[in-house]
Amino acid sequence: LTVPHRLITRKTIREVAVVLSTVDLVITNDTGIMHAAAAVGAPTLSLFGPTEPEQWAPQGKLHRSIQGVKGDVNAISVEQVLHLAREMLVHG
User: Fold this and answer.
1) CA 83 → CA 69, 77, 79, distances in Å?
2) What is the reported pLDDT for 1?
3) Angle value at C-alpha 53, between 21 and 83, nearest 5 degrees
4) What is the 3-state secondary structure of 44-70?
5) C-beta separation of 26 from 58 below 8 A
6) I want to staple 34 with a disulfide (CB 3.0 to 4.6 A). Which of 27, 28, 80, 86 is the partner?
7) Of 60, 21, 13, nearest to 37 (Cα)?
8) Would you call 28 helix, strand, or coil by DSSP?
């Protein structure tokens, strides 16, 4: 499965924010990029390990999150991510 993606390197946070504001969906772990994506209005699928998505995940209808079993982000399967990503892309 090939998913169109973009790797951003050696850019300022402002430059990254501009790119994030143009995408259809951002899939990210619990990082500053997650917050930057949400701040510029990009739909965001956030992957969480031990931190609580209820406290840290972006809120609103554009954003969804998945928390790994027992707080392990590696327990989130690719299939879970792809299913939710497709749902977000199709239904907004």
Assistant:
1) 17, 10, 6
2) 65
3) 65
4) EEEEECCCCHHHHCCCCCCEEEEECHH
5) no
6) 28
7) 21
8) strand
